[in-house]
Amino acid sequence: EVQLVESGGGLVQAGGSLRLSCAASGFTIDDYAIAWFRQAPGQEREGVSGISSSDGNTYYAASVKGRFTISGDNAENTVYLQMNSLKPEDTAVYYCAALRARRIDPAYVDYWGKGTLVTVSS
């Protein structure tokens, strides 16, 4: 059974940091691109970052570039999202996703995690 389990969300003050984890099972992260999406209340789900473990390519949305870092641990079959200099506008539910298509778009997601809530207070 394919599963993606997120962890690491929580409440943090603006300027703080959090590290999200996405533990994959039922498949190898090398076989998929792994992406993080987020969805704030009343807004559409948007792609934040993605990584292709097989070739090391990464993607960052303009809103998080320079603040977030995505990485993968093939031995742990886990992808991480290090989030620094957090802003109140980063508040959202963060979802991990696996995609065969190398396009960070909800329409191309093969598997979703259930999400983890990140709240950044001002």
Any overview of this molecule?
The protein is mainly β and 122 residues long. Helix content is 0%, strand content 52%. The model has no long low-confidence stretch (mean pLDDT 96).
Secondary structure blueprint with pairings:
Blueprint: E1 3-7, E2 10-13, E3 18-25, E4 33-39, E5 46-52, E6 57-60, E7 68-73, E8 78-83, E9 92-99, E10 111-112, E11 116-121
Parallel strand pairs: 2-11
Antiparallel strand pairs: 1-3, 3-8, 4-5, 4-9, 5-6, 7-8, 9-10, 9-11
Which key terms come to mind for this protein?
mainly beta, 52% strand, seven-stranded mixed beta sheet, globular, four-stranded antiparallel beta sheet, 11 strands, 122 residues
Structure in a nutshell:
By secondary structure, the chain is an all-beta fold.
Q: Report the strand count.
A: 11
Count of helical regions: 0
- Residue-averaged pLDDT, rounded? 96
Q: Helical amount among residues, as a percent range?
A: under 10%
How does the helix and strand content classify structurally?
A: mainly beta
Shape: globular
Distance N to C terminus:
40 Å
Contiguous low-pLDDT stretches (5 residues minimum) are none
- Main beta sheet strand tally, sense and closure: 7 strands, mixed
Question: What would you report as the Rg, rounded to the nearest angstrom?
Answer: 13 Å
Strand content: over 45%
Element order, helices and strands? Answer: EEEEEEEEEEE
